[in-house]
Amino acid sequence: MKIAIAQINCTVGDIAGNALKIIDAVYQAKQSGADLVITPELALSGYPPVDLLLRETFCRACAEALVELCKKVTDITLVIGHPSNQDGKLYNTASVIQDGKITANYHKRILSQPPFFNEHYYFYPGTNPCHFELDGIKFGLNICADFWLANPADYAAHSDIHILLVLSASPYRIDKQVSRYQVTHQFVQKTGLSVIHTNLIGGQDELVFDGASFAMNPQGELTHQFGEFIETIGLVELQNTLPIQQQIAAPLSSTACVYQALCLGVKEYVHKNGFPSVLIGLSGGVDSALTLAIAVDALGAENVKTVMMPTKFTADISLQDAQQMATLLGVEHYKCGINHIFDQLLETLLSDFQIQSDSSGINTMPENLQARIRGMLLMAVSNQTGAIVLTTGNKSEIAIGYCTLYGDMAGGFAVLKDVSKTMVYQLCEYRNQLSKVIPERIIQRAPSAELRLDQTDQDNLPPYEVLDAIIEAYVEKGYSAAEIIAMDHRETDVMQVIRLIHQNEYKRRQAPIGIRITQCDFGTAWHYPITSKHQQY
To answer: What element of type H or E holds 93?
Structure first.
């Protein structure tokens, strides 16, 4: 028997388009001699549909599309993920379609939990297992969290089957595939069953789904591994109910996976939302350089434009490096000096509003003013052309508020929102290994916002390697201040960083969404109040 893994890119709400994609996968599977096709979780509706599920018209459209799809499935068995309404209850369902009709239904039993998803808000949990037989082979069904969050005691439910099929919409994060292997290996060792996973591919708002579907035999050996971040119809051949070791795609390095995830996230957000192109404020610094490289790799140079907006504080080498990179990547590059606008606005503020730049802390106003002029100009061009502005701030800056509301935070999509400054440098080095597009001087220079003379990021911050380690420990791992200090960090650094993280929650709430790559991003997984008297230490 041959089983086709439909690792497909489904779009939330594009029910007709998703149905066509599924039928095309069925056709390709037939051409390859497959007997069974498996789609990802909720492939018909796209994942996650969230509040669309509260709309009766949406659920009815899914049901109608399923009926029409069934009519086209003959001479092959299809297992399809979709929402279903039974007796007034909505379920996350996998249906088995044979000879034009549904022969079995499985309702997801372990619903995904917050912070990433809250399926309990939309779905009822199923209660029964589902087994079906095809050519003498007994299959069981699970949907995503049914497998990943199952207790060992639940394994007994699969005692009467040969192979477990898992329909997943499992989003990417760093080293996620390693944890998938670990859970699957534990399962097959305990049960003696083979497992075949199919996973969604594509981008949906902050999320990127990496595909990376695979099969594992009862010995815990990986028999099939399909590509990461690409659509594919993969084939798993069985012999005596066991998958035969055949196709194992070479794994990408952790850094390569992050880079590919960012490229896919940008491509999907721009294309699925109908933006014709993107616009980037180029500074000659490392963050905007990486953002530009990702945008060009994702969308093509013809769909990317850059703007350099220097002031008297901008170094000549910043202008040179920005121009060089734009030339290397072949993008349309503009230079728009903003000194005259800055001087005029500053004079107005100092005279008409009687504002004095003194030691009271008001001296940050001119710095923020420069950033806001740039943001205003970028958004004006965006309004005129329809291009979406990609912001260039990284996770380290967003964590501690080293960014300006309505300035460098102005834009529609934050490419590096979940990428630490330390990782920015790693990604730049990785991209230059593919081809040299980021000038070495950009990578080697001390980072600076260039909003005043001789400014560097480390004027008021710990070194980025220290800052990032504290942010990772506190935000992503949930360590307390005491635990972080015990990791040989200075108490003053730890307290400063934690204070800044919570002090700048109000900024993050107003930031554009960005791509999630870590265990805890500031979009889907971080839910702290802005107003709070609780001491976080």
So the answer is: strand 89-98
